[in-house]
Design goal:
52% helix; alpha+beta; five-stranded mixed sheet; 16% strand
């Protein structure tokens, strides 16, 4: 509403009301991935940037990519590919606490942020459990190909100022996992 002109905004709200569109539901859809129910990339970046602004300690970021996802879609169709993504989203919600962040960034790429888990061993154990349970999806959906993921893990440093600082590092680490044969998780080493 430029120059205080709220006419267009009021008209949009009126049209939404006439069509039975709930403004709160629309706002909710703007922040969540419609398929998995996880945060979408926009909401994830916004929240991660807020976490970084607060200077929280003991925070870990994880980029996750589904291995050979194109093969799953090619062999079983996009509906089954979507079911794989939905099941992965369910697992992430199961293993992430209410303070943690779980998001689908797009396609077959996800992001997790664990807040306040003190010990790296705890994070690694949680990720390995998720990793193993993801393998069960193929059996559950009766797929001809395995379902696996590659994970890149990084702790958050005081020099990290934006989501991109974390994402780039975790993504590079995830690609190391892909290059080392996929189906694994690799932690970023500061050295």
């Amino acid at each position: 509403y430029q120059n205080g002109d709220t006419g267009m905004y009021d008209q949009m709200k009126s049209t939404m009301g006439n069509l039975g569109i709930d403004e709160e539901k629309l706002k909710n859809k703007a922040h969540y991935d419609h398929m998995t129910g996880l945060l979408n990339r926009f909401a994830c970046e916004t929240i991660v940037n807020q976490v970084l602004d607060e200077g929280l300690e003991n925070v870990t970021g994880v980029v996750i990519d589904v291995d050979n996802f194109k093969e799953i879609n090619d062999l079983h169709g996009h509906y089954i590919g979507d079911q794989v993504l939905i099941k992965i989203g369910e697992l992430f919600r199961k293993y992430c606490r209410s303070d943690d962040i779980a998001a689908r960034l797009g396609g077959d790429e996800f992001f997790l942020m664990f807040l306040g888990l003190m010990q790296q061993d705890t994070i690694r154990a949680r990720l390995q459990t998720m990793h193993q349970e993801i393998h069960n999806i193929a059996r559950e959906l009766k797929l001809k190909v395995p379902v696996s993921v590659s994970m890149g893990v990084t702790k958050i440093y005081s020099t990290d100022k934006t989501f991109d600082d974390i994402y780039v590092r975790a993504d590079e680490t995830m690609y190391q996992a892909k290059l080392s044969g996929k189906n694994t998780l690799i932690c970023f080493n500061e050295e």
